[in-house]
Design a protein that fits this description.
Blueprint (H helix, E strand, L loop, with lengths): L1 H22 L11 H4 L9 H4 L6 E2 L9 E8 L9 E9 L9 E6 L10 H8 L2 H6 E6 L30 H19 L8 H14 L5 E6 L1 H12 L4 E7 L9 H24 L1 H4 L5 H17 L2 E3 L2 E3 L1 H11 L3 H15 L10 H4 L19 H12 L9 H14 L4 H5 L23 E8 L5 H10 L3 E10 L9 H13 L7 E4 L2 H13 L16
Parallel strand pairs: 4-5, 4-6, 6-7, 7-10, 10-11, 11-12
Antiparallel strand pairs: 1-2, 2-3, 3-5, 8-9
Length: 547
Amino acid sequence: MRRRRLAPLLAVSVTATLAPALATSTATAAPAATPSTVSSSAATGPLNRYVKQKPQWKRCEAASPAEFECATIKVPLDYRVPGGKRIDLAISRIKSTAPDKRHGVLFSNPGGPGGQGLYMPLGMQERLPESARQKYDFIGFDPRGVGQSSPVSCDLEPEEENWLRPYKEETFDKDVAWARDVANKCREKAGDVLPHITTRNTARDMDLLRAILGEKKISYVGYSYGTYLGAVYTQLFPGRTDRFVLDSAVDPARAWRGMIQWWAEGAEPAFVRWTEWAAERSEKYGLGDTPKQVARTFWDLVAQADEKPIEIDGQPINGDDIRSGIRGAVFSPEYATEGIVELKRAAAGEPASAKKLAAFAGSEGTGTSGASDAAEVPSDNMTASFWAVVCGDNSAAWSRDPESYRQDAIEDTRRYPLYGDFASSIKPCAFWDKSMEPATKVNNKVGSLVVQNEWDSQTPLPSGQALHADLKGSKMVTVLGGEGHGVYPNGNACTDGTVTAYLLTGKLPAKDVTCRATADSNAEARKNQKRDVLPGSPLTERAPDRF
């Protein structure tokens, strides 16, 4: 009865709420919706037919738990033209275990862009405490263009998906050609759809789903890219946000080229920390008695591999592979040290552990979707949807001059020798079409909780601090000594307790919270890093070249 009673009100409010977001469109391909047409009554509102949808819930798969239900709804491809083409949005839920204690719905996103979120409720059910399972219906969804939500493809070959390429003068022209080819293939394959696969439109999908579910507001847990999606939602729909947890945060002002470059900036202090850690344990690991000696051991291995690749299980590893691998590895000094010890053995022709060398052999992050077998998903879907968002959210962030990428890569090789050229060299966004809308400026007072490890391989601490500053109603939990990407839940009483209390009560801490990592919580981070899994999700879709 409650949902039926709210439905007419929500049918009006969802269209009114979308009005400011739609009115900012700068696209010229079709007439932009005006506030008057968007905010019309439920009887004539352009989104009313979408709000009236009744999801046909059914068991997701024969092998999945009975309580894990899936459905498919329709959303507009282009919110400026609600009566135009529609696309599928795959959604899922696990209902509250105690309806009498239920507070509302808890949406989630695992990161990406391009990460599938349909199966997130299973991870939430497994990892979150019973009190949270009683409080919420867990809601998952594959973002538009991803997984089972009308997946996009550029028909890319596996080699074309290898996008973090080191700058070399002799190969730069080939890299420019690769970037241009990827953009052209995407345009030819899905040029009518890709411009609409953006974070702003995914936020609109979330709000439409909220209305279809009969909810006034949503709560949300988003990781990595999911923090940006959550922040954009708070900006477009501030009146629809309830309890928002933004874990391992993206700086909105640096989406997206600047965020990729931050991988290089963040790697340098982590590398220094690693050399100090390894030097203090020189008797055990033998990499050097001082940080300078440890660094020399590393760079000698890079030079040796550049001259003659080091073989690991028949796979040649060159100096660029080592530099690329160390970026993620050094955020856990123990993990990095074990890897370099094995690499040193392999370089000397001795037997080495391929498992401990995974970071340097390129076997950790595949960039694949990690999808269930429930539906066919193009093999390049995660990459295609990644570029749609990274290029399409803010085309102004990407220079159209290939020569500027050469100069940036050269300069950043000097500034950030570990990874600067990888991060700053040419990307397909240099040849992408202009964004349909301006980038979202996040600047509001919506209450939220930003959660951040001090040592994060993908979104460095300053990135989380920047989002906290933009969300003026937020509080921040900083985990000093915290390693890895993704914090909640990790078994740390301080962090888990703070986040869970917020989800249960809606009350933010009175002031920012500083927790200290424990041996167990960092061990959990190392376990997640090695198995390439995002905390809270059963899917193996966390890759070192994604957020």
